[in-house]
Design brief:
With 158 residues, this protein is α+β, with helices and mostly antiparallel strands. It is built from three helices and eight strands; from the N terminus they run ααββββαββββ.
Amino acid sequence: MSKFQDALPPDVESIFAFYASIPHHNAIGLEAVSANLEMAQMRIAYDPRFVGNPDTGILHGGLITTLMDATGGLAVMASVPKGTPVATLDLRLDYLRGAEPEVSLIGCAHCYKLTRNVAFTRGVAYEEDNPDDPIANFIATYMIKPVGIKMGVWEAGP
């Protein structure tokens, strides 16, 4: 990460505001909890609208994928200079077990490697009250571009 150490550090409050402005995040109740160079965390409250199997009450796997993609992106944004555009390149989720019904979920991710154009992340999803028994492992790569390039709604630059 030494390439980025002299650049303007990320502004976590503005990253959280950006995440809070994403309509999809609002629609599913996804919220940023914390972010720094070590770890990013996001939370999604249990919502019966997103149950994948009505017989068990287990949340749909797509919701967990969204949680982890957003959490990985948050980890990257907290690790690169302010305004660096970030986009998901590849994501893999290994489902270890179904989440318990009526329990909120936490996603944790760490950006463990940065190259000139790619950020590498890994993490886990778990039930809010059970961090020692993950429901999914996650690994993803994100494209990063130099500050000053514009991509979508996250505008790069000062």
